[in-house]
Amino acid sequence: MKCAIITGCLGGIGYGVAKKFLQEGYGVCGADCKMPETLPEALHGENFVYCSGDISKKADRARIVAAAMEKFGRIDVLVNVAGVAPRVRADLLEMTEESYDFVMDINTKGTLFLTQAAAKYMIQNEPEQGVRGYICNISSMSAYTSSVNRGEYCISKAGVSMITTLFADRLAEYGIPVNEIRPGIIATDMTSKVQAKYDKLIAEGILPIKRWGTPEDIASGVWALCSGAIPYVTGVSLDVDGGFHVQRL
Description:
Elements: E1 3-7, H1 12-23, E2 27-32, E3 48-52, H2 58-72, E4 77-80, H3 97-122, E5 134-138, H4 151-171, E6 178-183, H5 189-192, H6 195-203, H7 215-226, E7 237-240
Parallel strand pairs: 1-2, 1-4, 2-3, 4-5, 5-6, 6-7
C-alpha cells in the first residue's frame, strides 16, 4: 500500500487532505502537534496511523518519518500542511523576535527539514513510470501578498515557496516532483478569528469566485499534483484561491 505523510492532519486543510488520500486508497501517516483523546471518525481504520509531533523539533520529525516506515514500509507522498499564524497580530514595527521565531520554526524550518527527511526514503522507492514519489507544500497567498500586521507569516510562506523551488530542482533527477498549493481565503480555525473581515471583503468583490474556499478545495488540488494527473510539472505554485491572484482594473 502506498503511504502519504500529511502534517496538520487534525484540522482544516490537513484534515481535508488526509480524508482525500484515505478515500483514494492510500495509507496515511497523519501528524499533528495535538494529543487528542480520540481521533475524528474519518481518520479511524487500518489505513491510518497517527503520530503526535512538533515539526519544528528534529526528534519529532524523525518520529513522524519512522511511524510511516514502521506502519507502511515506504513513503510515497509528503504533504506539508502544518503551519501557524502569529499568536498576536502586531504591526511590522512592533513584531517581536519571539513571534518571528515561533512562526518560522514551524512553517519554514519544519517544512524544510521534514521534506529533507522524507525525501531520503522516497529516493529508495522503485520508480513507477519514472516517478518515485510526490511532495506538495501548502504555502499561501501570503507568500506574495503583504499583510503588515503579520509579517512573520508572510515571510514564512515566501520561504515555503523557495523550499518548493529548491527541492523541485534537487529531486528532479530522482523522479520526485515537488509542487505547492497557495490557498486563498479558506474556512479553517485559523481564519475563523477574522471571519467578519473576510466576509466583508468577499462581499465587496475581492474574489472573482465569490465564496470562501474549503479544505476540500485544497485537497482536490493536492490530489491533482500528487496522483500523476499532471505528470509534466515540478516547481509549480497552484493558486487555489478563487481567483484572488488575478490582477483586475
